[in-house]
Amino acid sequence: MGTDENSPSGITGGDDQSEKASGAGAASDQPEPPELRDPKTRVIWEAEYAARIAEANKLVTLMKYIDSQTDETRREVRADYESLQAREASPEALRLCAQQSENAVRTAEDAAIMCAADALNLSEHHVTSLHIAAESARTQLPKVWQAFREGRITCGALRSIAGTLNKPLKEGTIEKLDEKAPAYAETHRPGQLNDWLRRFIAKVEPIGAAERFTRAAKERHVTVRDLDDGMSLLTAIMPTMTAHSIQQKLEAVARSPQQAIPHNPLIATQIDQQEQRLELTRALNQWMHAGRRSEGSEVTLIDSWEIGQAAQHMAQELQEENLNAQQVPFADGLHITDGAPIGLPEAPGPNERPREMNTDAQAAGHLPETRADGDPRNISQRALDMFTAWLLDGGSSNGIEIETHIGILVPEATLKGTSDQPAISRDGRAVIPGPHIRDMLRIQHDNLKWCELGTNGEPPGSAESPSDAKAHGEDILSYHSVGRYPPPRLRTALQFRDGVCVADGCRTPAERCDIDHIVPWPHGGTHAENLQVLCRRHHRLKTAGYDIKSHYTQAA
C-alpha cells in the first residue's frame, strides 16, 4: 500500500535495515600486510586484522539487534497508520498518528541502545555514537562501510569519515568522499586521516567552508573545567590564525634564554620547598654514607617539619663529635652553622603546627626567571606561566622583543580573489577559508614575509602534493652552508617543504623539530637535498641506526 505525505520515513523505511546490515559484505580473505619495517611484526599485523574483523562483526551484530527492535515497533505503528487510512481518517488524525509513530520508533531505538550498552559495558552515549556512525556509513558511504567490513580500515577511521557527514555537504561531495576516503584511511594514521578529511572538505566545498567559518566564529567562547589535584582546564574556542599566533608567541618567549617569565606564586612556593627538601635529602644521605650511620640507610623527606627534625638531629651529632659543621659538604643555603640549619624552621613543639619555609611571594621572588639563570621550568611550563602573566598582569617583567612567524600555504588564485580555495597551515592540520585568509593578509600586510612555492597548496607528503618545491623565480631551497647548521632562511624553507617530521606517520610540526643531515655532516653537505625535518624522537632513532621511513619522497 502506498503512503501519503504524512507517513513518516521511520514507519515506511525500516524493514530492509537489518538486511542491509547482514548483507553489507562479509569479511574477505585476509589481505597481504603493507610493507613492514620488521618482518617479525607480521604477527602483530595479523592480530590487528583479526581485531578489526571482530570489531566489524560486533558492530554489525549491534546494528542487527537495534534494527530488529525498531522493526518490530515499525510494523506495529504501520498497522495502526494503515488502519486509519482504511477508515478514511482526517488529515489531522493521520498527521498525529505519524508523529506518535515516529516517537514510538525513537523510543524503541533508545531502549535497544540502553540494553546494548548494558551488554557491552559501555555508556549509552558511546553506543549511540557508534550506531550513528555505522548507520551513516552503510546508508551514505557504502565503499567506506565495505572497507570497514573487510578489515581494511579501523572502527576509528569509520567514525572519523562518517563524522564529516555532520556538515551540510552536497551529494557530489559525499560521493567523492566515499570514493577516496577508504584508500587514504587504509594507508595513513588516524591523525593524518583527520587532517586529510579537514582539507578535503574545505577544498571540495570552499564556499561552504567559508560559510561554516562564519557560523563557527559566532560560537567563540572561553570555558573552565575543574580537574583533579587542584588543576583546571582552560579552553578557548577562537579562529585558527589567532590561536596559532598565540601559540607561536608563547613558545618563542618560553624558549628565549633571556626572556624573564614570572613564576606563578601558587606554584612557586611548592617548587621552592621541593628543591630545598631535595638538596637537604642529598646532603643528609651523603653525610650518612660517609660512615656516620649504618650502610644502606636512606632518608626520604616528606615535609618541612621532618626537614627541621632531621637537620637538627644531624647538627646535634656533629656537635657531640666536636666536628666543624661548616666542613660538611652541604649545598649553598642549606649548610650547618653553629649547629642550626640556615633557612630551615626549628622543629615545632608537640602542639605547634609545622611552619612553611617561605611565603608565596618570597618563593616567587627568588626563583630564577630566565633559562640563562637556571629556570627549573620546562618550555611548556614557562609558556603557561607567561600566558597566565599576560592575562592577569598584562605583560612580562621586561620588554624583550620576540619575533615569531606562522607558515601558511595560500593558492595564488585565492590571493588574487579569483578563487575561494582555502589556505593550509604548513603542517597540514589547519584549514583557513579563502575569504578569511584574504582579510587577515590585508590586516597584517606590514608583517608579512613572502616565499613563493611551486605547490598546489597541499602539505608535503600528501598524495596531491608535487615533489618539486622550487620557487618560480628564486629557489628558496638553493641556500648552502659551509658549516653544520643551516642559515635561518634555509631552515624556514625546509619547514615549509616538509611541514612536519618526515618520519612516516609522525605529525610533529616542523618548527618543533630538528634539522637532520640525511648523510651525516661533514660527509654530507648542509643543503636542502641532504636535509630533512625530524622530531627529536625520530632523530635519536635515526642516529642510533634505525631506518626511518620517510613520507617525503624528495628528502628520502
From TrEMBL:
SMART domains: HNHc. GO terms for molecular function: endonuclease activity; nucleic acid binding; zinc ion binding. Residues 489-540 form the HNH nuclease domain. Residues 1-39 are annotated as: Disordered. InterPro entries: DUF222 (IPR003870), HNH (IPR002711), HNH_nuc (IPR003615). Residues 1-10 have a biased composition (Polar residues). It comes from the Bacteria. Belongs to the Rv1128c/1148c/1588c/1702c/1945/3466 family. This is HNH nuclease domain-containing protein. The lineage of its organism: Bacteria, Bacillati, Actinomycetota, Actinomycetes, Micrococcales.
